[in-house]
Amino acid sequence: MKRATSIVFAASALTAACTPYSETVGAAAPLGTVWELETVNGLPAASRMTLTFLANGKLQGLLPCNSYTGEQSAPLPWFEIEKLAVTLRSCPALPDEQSYLAILKSSDYAEVAGDSLLLSDVDENSLYFVRRGNG
């Protein structure tokens, strides 16, 4: 009987390890926290860009030229941007914005650890953010 209980426990632990969390990245990261981009694909960010998770799966951010809004409702560790809307101003940092937004849209994995947030995709593109405070 003890061995059967151990097998059931081990199977339950394995299933739990493969099951997404019920909370989203926005719920795991304190709402209203401003996450500032530190690196893009492991290289220092060329421009200041932010990401902030709001209530009800909403998000917003600031870019050098523009701002953006969207929604994210996938449970951790998954990440999926929906309804992304970006203002249409132009400036010299526009290529940096376009690169950031492309990786943000392709990101499908999120990890929150203390003051760090990592978003990445299957092609190993990544956006690494650090917590800078509340907006």
- What number is the mean pLDDT? 85
Rg to the nearest angstrom? 18 Å
Number of separate helices: 3
CATH architecture: Beta Barrel
Number of strands: 9
Beta-strand portion reads 35-45%
Tell the overall outline: globular
CATH class: Mainly Beta
In the CATH scheme, what's the topology name?
Lipocalin
Q: Helix/strand/pairing class, anyone?
A: alpha+beta
Could you estimate the helical fraction of the residues in percent? 25-40%
Largest sheet: 9 strands, antiparallel
Following the backbone from N to C, one meets helices and strands in this order, namely: HHEEEEEEHEEE
- Which residues form runs of ≥5 with pLDDT under 50? 1-20
End-to-end Cα distance: 55 Å
Description:
Residues 32-128 form the DUF306 domain. This is META domain-containing protein. This protein is an alpha+beta fold and 135 residues long. It has a single domain (22-134), classed as Lipocalin, CATH 2.40.128.270. It is built from three helices and nine strands, in the order H-H-E-E-E-E-E-E-H-E-E-E. The chain has helices at 2-18, 25-28, 94-106, and strands at 33-40, 43-44, 50-53, 58-62, 67-72, 81-86, 109-113, 116-120, 126-134. Strands 1, 2, 3, 4, 5, 6, 7, 8 and 9 form a nine-stranded antiparallel beta sheet that branches. A hairpin with an 8-residue loop joins strand 5 (67-72) and strand 6.
